[in-house]
Specification:
- The protein has about 170 residues and is an alpha+beta fold.
- The protein contains 3 helices and 8 strands.
- The chain has 2 domains: about 90 residues, no CATH class; about 55 residues, Roll (SH3 type barrels), CATH 2.30.30.
- The strands form 2 sheets. A 5-stranded mixed barrel has the order 4-5-6-7-8.
- The termini are far apart.
- One of its GO terms (biological process) is bacterial-type flagellum assembly.
Length: about 170
C-alpha cells in the first residue's frame, strides 16, 4: 500500500505547469509570455520581443487548444494571441519592433527619455498639438510612449522629427 501512495505522490509532483493553471481555473499567463517569445524570437524587453509581460491580474479561462499567434497591425508592432476554443479569448501583446522587418543600422535618438516634445494629434483635415514629455528615447520613425502631464495616461506616438511626435487618428 505504501508503494501505491508513493507512486501517486510522484505522479502528482510531475504535473505540468498548465495542469496547475487548470487547477486554479485560469490560463497560465507565463505560458502566454513563453509563446510570444517563441513566436517573435526574442524575450521580454529585448528588441523584437514583448515590451512587458502579460498583466498578471488577468484571469483568462483555460484554453484547451493550442494558442494561435499572429502579427497584428499595419506596422506589425503587436502580436495577437487567441484561444481558438469556443467562447475563447484574445489579447494583444505590444512588441518593440518586428524582427522580420530586418534590423536597421543604429540611429542616434531624435528624442531622449524625459525630453519635452510637441505631441500632435493628426487626422483627415485637422491637426491639434500640445506639449508633453517623452517616456522613452527613440529615433525618427520609432514609436514611443509619451504623456501630456505627470498624471496623464501614456500614449504611443511616432517620432517624425526631433522634438515632434505624432498620434495619427484614422
Amino acid at each position: 500500500m505504501k508503494t501505491l501512495s508513493i507512486i501517486v505522490a510522484l505522479g502528482a509532483c510531475t504535473l505540468a505547469p498548465a495542469a496547475v493553471a487548470q487547477v486554479s481555473g485560469f490560463h497560465d499567463l507565463v505560458a502566454i509570455d513563453d509563446a510570444v517569445a517563441r513566436f517573435t524570437g526574442a524575450g521580454i524587453g529585448r528588441p523584437g520581443g514583448a515590451n512587458l509581460p502579460v498583466d498578471r491580474r488577468m484571469r483568462l479561462s483555460p484554453c484547451r487548444s493550442e494558442l494561435s499567434l499572429s502579427w497584428y497591425g499595419a506596422r506589425q508592432d503587436n502580436v495577437l494571441v487567441q484561444c481558438p476554443d469556443a467562447g475563447g479569448w484574445r489579447l494583444f501583446v505590444a512588441v518593440s519592433g518586428n524582427v522580420r522587418q530586418g534590423t536597421a543600422p543604429a540611429e542616434p535618438p531624435a528624442v531622449a527619455r524625459g525630453e519635452a516634445v510637441t505631441i500632435a494629434v493628426e487626422g483627415d483635415g485637422f491637426s491639434v498639438s500640445q506639449s508633453g514629455e517623452a517616456m522613452e528615447a527613440g529615433a525618427v520613425g520609432a514609436w514611443i510612449r509619451v504623456r501630456t502631464s505627470a498624471k496623464a495616461t501614456t500614449m504611443r506616438a511616432q517620432i517624425t522629427r526631433p522634438g515632434l511626435v505624432v498620434v495619427p487618428v484614422d
